[in-house]
Amino acid sequence: MRPYKVILAQLIGPAxxxxxxxxxxxxxxxxxxxxxxxxxxxxxxxFAVQAFRYQxxxxxxxxxxxxxxxxxxxxxxxxxxxALSFNFLENLNxxxxxxxxxxxxxxxxxxxxxxxxxxxxxxxxAASRRKQ
Length: 132
Fold this sequence. Notes:
Shape: flat
Strand content: under 5%
Structural class: mainly alpha
Distance between the termini: 28 Å
Largest sheet: none
């Protein structure tokens, strides 16, 4: 799986949503959606780097530890970035901030699902079913 595609989608999606809000509502809402999306994408980027560091059955224990480290780091990064946003950003719309965060997370889940579904269609088992 290619985690960079998920992160890229998590950056593009909220940016497009923020542009839409900039056009339809106001700058504060658009900026807040963008910041929420960036918080999600940055924290998930850390997780992706940690989670996909090791591969193979020989590294099973390292994989488990890297997933745990990635998940804990992702949560800490998200909490830190939210705290910094609340403390240092002016005219922040809290609902839009959390909406952007949730939107980016949903994009990540959707893109990951599409990638898994697409790769399952290329498996040897799926190929043998198509031949029958």
